[in-house]
Design a protein that fits this description.
Layout lengths: L4 H10 L3 E4 L12 E4 L9 E2 L2 H10 L3 E4 L12 E4 L7
Antiparallel strand pairs: 1-2, 1-3, 4-5
Length: about 90
């Protein structure tokens, strides 16, 4: 788990992922759902956003980035989850 922007960006870029959001999920002029679009995973319905917008929203929501480096077989993993530690329903 991390909140370090450099770690998050390096993890995503190592997998060819780009910062995206779901169109129509915006909230108060900010991106709504924060995701990554990984090559070959059909992200046609996603809207690419800048790293600056992605991280600004990430920080404003005080999120944690939970991620996995490798699968059990040693291959790179694309698994991640964004978590708000203050969300009592999580």
């Amino acid at each position: 788990m991390t909140t370090d922007h450099d770690v998050i960006r390096q993890w995503a870029e190592a997998r060819g992922a780009k910062p995206v959001t779901v169109p129509g999920s915006d909230y108060g002029g900010r991106p709504g759902r924060l995701l990554f679009d990984f090559p070959g995973y059909g992200g046609e319905d996603l809207e690419e956003i800048s790293w600056e917008d992605w991280f600004r929203t990430f920080d404003e929501r005080k999120l944690n980035f939970l991620y996995q480096e490798h699968k059990k077989d040693g291959a790179p993993s694309n698994f991640f989850r964004l978590e708000n530690p203050d969300d009592t329903e999580a």
